[in-house]
Amino acid sequence: MALEIDLSGRVVLVTGGARGVGAGIVRTFQEAGAVVEICGRTSPGPGGEGPEPRFSQVDVREEEQVRRWVDEVAQRHGRIDVAVNNAGGGPFAGFASASPRFHRRITDLNFLSAVFVSQFVFPVMNAREEGGSVVNITSISARRPSPGTAVYGAAKAALESLTRSLAVEWAPRVRVNAVSCGLVETEGSADHYGDSEQQARVAATIPRGVFAKPQEVGAACVLLASPLASHISGAVLNVDGGGEWPAFLQHAPGTERLPGQASAG
Q1: Three-state SS for 47?
Q2: How far apart are CA 168 and CA 164, in angstroms?
Q3: Domain-wise residue ranges, the chain
Q4: Distance (Å, rounded) from C-alpha 42 to C-alpha 39?
Q5: Is the separation of the CB atoms in 206 and 183 below 8 Å?
Q6: Which has the minimum average pLDDT: 154-163, 167-176, 182-191?
Q7: Buried-most residue among 139, 191, 196, 251 (CB within 10 A)?
Q8: Radius of gyration, alpha carbons of the chain
Q9: How would you class 214 by CB atoms within 10 Å of its CB: exposed for 0-12, middle for 13-18, buried for 19 or more?
Q10: Catalytic residues
Q11: Which superfamily, per CATH, for 11-197+210-247?
């Protein structure tokens, strides 16, 4: 029996919701009936199927821009039920050779942007008996070595720590959780993982053997924001297909007989 989540009438903010994982999160909340508002530095332009979320041009690294956006949404709807801190990312760069300015901007985008959004939505959510839900999008890089994107991984680790702290500090009305993403298939996959053959080899390092779809990340967000998760706060939900095959399994004797390991070697 299918279990549908109905978020009709709920107002949801999604940072960086114009493309990639963010667009999948937006679509999933819309399918659940929510009103979605997104922000970013660049307008998404014409979209695909379904209603377009309202877009606001905001640099989430700038606290005053974030404050104005949250205030405008709260005034427009009279409520904010869910905030998804999705904006993030960072190019590959060696730690020693990257500039201090680069490190600062990566930290601002992946950590401080979520700090600003969360801080400004809290009084709006906390003023209502129903409270609200904050969902932070983190990464598998938060809990394993992240060479070439070290500051990105460190910022996501900080975001997971913030999630657990705010879940306690803001209880009982505002729940705070995180979704930790593994590798996700988006329109930018080729830039990160190469052509289709290279992507297949990368996918083989995932126990399920495939990249996540953006909507699968969105489904986790909708679940955590819904009444079904009313007693879940401070959690980090992994959406990573089982994580990663341990490297030693490619070389240890006998492990080739493990289900799926032949494709991961």
Answers
A1: coil
A2: 7
A3: 11-197+210-247
A4: 8
A5: yes
A6: 182-191
A7: 139
A8: 19
A9: buried
A10: 152
A11: NAD(P)-binding Rossmann-like Domain (3.40.50.720)
